[in-house]
Amino acid sequence: MHHLVHWLDGGETSLANSALLCERHHTKVHHGFRVERRPDGRWHTWRPDGTEILTRPPLLQPAA
Fold first, then answer.
1. Domain boundaries, the chain
2. By the 8 A CB rule, do 34 and 46 touch?
3. pLDDT for 14-49, tens place per residue?
4. Are 19 and 4 in contact (CB under 8 A)?
5. Burial of 3 (0-12, 13-18, 19+ CB in 10 A)
6. DSSP letters along 7-63, please?
7. Phi–psi pair at 24, nearest 5 degrees
8. How far is the C-alpha of 63 from the C-alpha of 34, rounded, in Å?
9. Is the Cα dihedral 27, 30, 32, 35 positive or negative?
10. Alpha-carbon distance 33 to 52, whole Å?
11. pTM of the entire structure?
12. Which residues, including other chains, have CB under 8 Å from residue 7's CB and lie 6 or more apart?
């Protein structure tokens, strides 16, 4: 589990201040990438150069 605000910076150990990341992405966060959970629950991610990583909608919609 990853602290969104590191405990050394006053971040508490709680669900509200945590993100469940796989080992690969947890390592990336500790090497300059940044993740943030907005108040609406949506996640945003940034590269070390500060550019936001955006996702695109799926090309195909599932059949109803």
1. 2-53
2. yes
3. 988 888 988 998 999 989 999 998 888 888 999 999
4. yes
5. middle
6. GGGT--SSGGGEE---HHHHHHHTTT-EEEE-TTS-EEEE-TTS-EE--PPPSSPPP
7. -60, -50
8. 35
9. positive
10. 10
11. 0.67
12. 13
Per this entry, what is the length of the chain? 64
Least reliable range by pLDDT among 4-8, 31-35, 49-53, 60-64 = 60-64
Any idea which residue has 């990341």 for tokens? 21
- Give me 16's structure tokens: 């509200």
Give the per-residue pLDDT at 4: 87
- Read off the tokens for 27: 């390592």
Please give the structure tokens belonging to residue 37. Answer: 């959970």
